Amino acid sequence: MLMKMAAASTTSLLLLCCFAISRTDSQDPCDYNALKGKDFIVPLSLKLEPSHRLKWKHNDNFIFDQRQGKVLFKRKEDDVSENGSLKLTNLNDRHKGIYTPELFNQDGNVIENRKSIRLCIFGPAPKPKVTKVCSSADVTFTCGVQAELAKDLKFAWLQNDKDLKEYTKTLKRNAEQVEKDSFRCKVFNPASSETSDAVTQEPCYKRKSIFPEKLLGISTWIYVGAGGGIVLVLVIVVIICCVRAKRKKRMLLKEEGELRLQWTNEQQHPHHHPHHHQHQHQQHQHNHPPEPHHHRSQQQPAGHTGPRQHRSKQHREQHQLPRVPPEPSSRRPPQAPRAVDQIDDEQPPPLPQPRKKAAKTPRV
User: Fold this and answer.
1) What 3-state class would DSSP assign to 56?
2) What is the pLDDT of residues 245-283, one digit of tens each?
3) What CATH number is attached to the domain comprising 136?
4) For residue 35, what pLDDT band results from cuts at 50, 70 and 90?
5) Looking at the domain assignment, is residue 110 inside a domain?
């Protein structure tokens, strides 16, 4: 009886040890992580000599055998480089596992210090999409991916592109506290990672505006736009009116200045053009022959070459005195000398006198 109990206990211990060993092997970390569909090179930790024999074993199966540089056996899609590293192409799930190299010298003895390599194969991480659900004052974000691609994926969250150190599939926040914040979710595995587009908490929380959204069934923004258009038109009209008024005022000031300048010139220089007045007086005399005056003070004696009265004054006196028809005489009566108005005025030449008729000598 004791012997049976001892044998049973021994069998139980062996089973527990085997289970522990298998579990430990399954949880061993990967030495290398590779993506499906890509190529990968498993490095050889030993130095390969031309005289050596090299074998590669995948888990418990030999996949490559080379002796002194000559390939004896290899798997179809695999190859070995010059330094003995194993080349794997178009990776898939059957490539994952433990790769062990075996190196022999010329005598066929195994060279020590060989090292096994665990290779893990992962699919590329898909791009996730964030969805949100509003509940009272909170908002819940969920990082979603396709179910068939979610294997071996882990999740992380970023708020305003800063890592939150939260590695869950969902994230809950107060909507008002994250009113202006953006959120992204990240999925990753040991070989790759992808990040979603940014989302915000709207419409879970929206700050109330002072103005109503609609007024009489019409959006408030329509009223704002119409008012802005009217104000713009009024501003343009005011600018046009100001420009026109300024231009009109400038023209009036210019005309007023010209009139003031003309009046000032006439007051300061009344006899500025003596030759012009003399020319007009001569034309007046040509059209109207001089008439004798009955006032002795205005007559000049014949042959008088002294200063004459100013033409403008003489012309004015001619208009003031009544005209008297000339006496029937062939000789012009002598005229008295005229008074001089201004010393600085130009003295005109003496008037021409009519020729005296000489006495006729009787013919013999």
Assistant:
1) strand
2) 998 998 988 888 888 888 888 887 665 544 444 544 454
3) 2.60.40.10
4) very high
5) yes
- Which amino acid is located at 289 in the chain? P
| DSSP 8-state secondary structure symbol assigned to residue 330 | S
Higher model confidence: residue 27 or residue 84? Answer: 84
d(CA 315, CA 284) in angstroms, rounded, equals 10
- Say whether both 113 and 149 belong to one domain: no
Question: In a 10 Å sphere around its CB, with 0-12 CB exposed, 13-18 middle and 19+ buried, how is residue 256 labelled?
Answer: exposed
CA separation for the pair 246, 240 (Å, rounded):
10
SS3 state at 311:
helix
| 364 within domain boundaries | no
Cα–Cα distances (Å) from 105 to 45, 48, 66, 86, 279, in that order, read 16, 10, 12, 19, 143
The answer to whether 279 and 351 are in contact (CB under 8 A) is no
- Provide the domain limits for residue 103: 24-122
Residue 42 DSSP one-character state: E
